[in-house]
């Protein structure tokens, strides 16, 4: 049974440090075929007040993920955020083409992880180009690895064509990698998460077809409940929200500009996971049975990640 405690603003720092430690531990346990460089940690701050973002920033976090265009614009342009000139924003929600002009106006927009069509890529390319930025905008292709209608993303067999289009026709965009949402509540005793496996295979196919280096194509996979498993499978970018900031209220009930209120965090999420030390075999491969024993962390909402901004 989960034991809940109140996550104060100061609690964000300890929760963040716990996640960073778990990321490092999982990275160290990767197989010898995978790089030992820790993946980028994106703190998903959707529906959380600016105070939580600033507290995480003050504790060393720089990359933050948001799902809704309007919320990201409001946060990024708030006077309290302006002094944080090295903050890096990731947009990780479903994006409509008609919102691209608004999104690219976000100061310190670092990456859009959810490009899923030629139309959207073209719109982002035009919008970013109008700003005369010195560098292209980093983008990832969201892949619907499970082929679920409820999820956004292009299908695996469409991915190479979309990547080639971005590389060839979108001079203001930089193709950075692939992103997916893993199967919710996956039973690791039955084998690796099929969504993660599909994304790894998709990257291999694309690199072979387009003569790209595997090292230059990132994999964004893994959220609060499965980021350690994703790291063991080669993730270079993990998106962790509730384990750092606590459980979220539904969007309609949340006041992201509120300076008050508290949230809940499990005591397990606020401390290092002892079970994670058993997540690999002696050969350095994922110990799937052990990985399945700890499924208590809260998962970032699939619905929210794909909701229309």
UniProtKB/TrEMBL annotation:
Superkingdom, taxonomy of origin = Eukaryota
Region (Disordered) location: 251-309
Can you tell me which residues the record assigns to a coiled coil? Answer: none
- Taken from the record, one Pfam family name reads Ala_racemase_N
Which keywords does the record carry?
A: Pyridoxal phosphate
Alanine racemase N-terminal domain location: 38-248
Biased amino acid composition, Polar residues: 251-281
GO MF annotations in UniProt: pyridoxal phosphate binding
Is this entry keyworded Glycoprotein?
no
The protein's matches in SUPFAM superfamilies, at most eight in alphabetical order, are given as: PLP-binding barrel
Spell out which residues are annotated as carrying N6-(pyridoxal phosphate)lysine.
46
- HAMAP family tied to this protein: PLP_homeostasis
What role is this protein assigned? Pyridoxal 5'-phosphate (PLP)-binding protein, which may be involved in intracellular homeostatic regulation of pyridoxal 5'-phosphate (PLP), the active form of vitamin B6.
Q: Which family does it belong to?
A: Belongs to the pyridoxal phosphate-binding protein YggS/PROSC family.
The protein in question is named: Pyridoxal phosphate homeostasis protein
Which organism does this sequence originate in?
A: Pocillopora damicornis
């Amino acid at each position: 049974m989960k034991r809940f405690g109140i996550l104060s603003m100061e609690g964000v720092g300890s929760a963040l440090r716990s996640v960073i430690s778990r990321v490092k531990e999982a990275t160290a346990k990767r197989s010898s075929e995978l790089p030992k460089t820790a993946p980028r940690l994106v703190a998903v701050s959707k529906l959380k007040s600016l105070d939580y973002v600033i507290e995480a920033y003050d504790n060393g976090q720089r990359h933050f993920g948001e799902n809704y265009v309007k919320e990201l614009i409001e946060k990024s342009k708030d006077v309290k955020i302006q002094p944080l000139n090295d903050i890096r924003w990731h947009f990780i929600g479903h994006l409509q083409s008609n919102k691209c002009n608004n999104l690219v106006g976000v100061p310190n927009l670092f990456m859009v992880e959810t490009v899923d069509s030629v139309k959207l890529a073209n719109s982002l390319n035009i919008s970013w180009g109008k700003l005369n930025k010195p560098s292209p905008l980093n983008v990832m292709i969201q892949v619907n690895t499970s082929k679920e209608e409820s999820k956004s993303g292009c299908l695996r067999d469409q991915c190479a064509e979309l990547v080639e289009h971005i590389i060839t026709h979108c001079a203001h965009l930089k193709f950075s990698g692939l992103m997916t949402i893993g199967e919710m509540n996956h039973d690791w005793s039955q084998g690796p998460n099929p969504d993660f496996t599909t994304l790894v295979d998709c990257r291999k196919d694309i690199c072979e077809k387009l003569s790209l280096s595997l090292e230059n194509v990132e994999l964004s996979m893994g959220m609060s409940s499965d980021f350690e498993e994703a790291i063991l499978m080669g993730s270079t970018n993990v998106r962790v929200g509730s384990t750092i900031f606590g459980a979220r209220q539904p969007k309609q009930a949340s006041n992201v500009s509120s300076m008050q209120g508290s949230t809940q965090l499990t005591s397990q999420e606020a401390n290092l996971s002892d079970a994670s030390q058993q997540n690999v075999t002696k050969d350095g491969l994922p110990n799937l049975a052990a990985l399945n024993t700890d499924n208590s962390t809260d998962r970032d909402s699939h619905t929210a990640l794909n909701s229309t901004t």
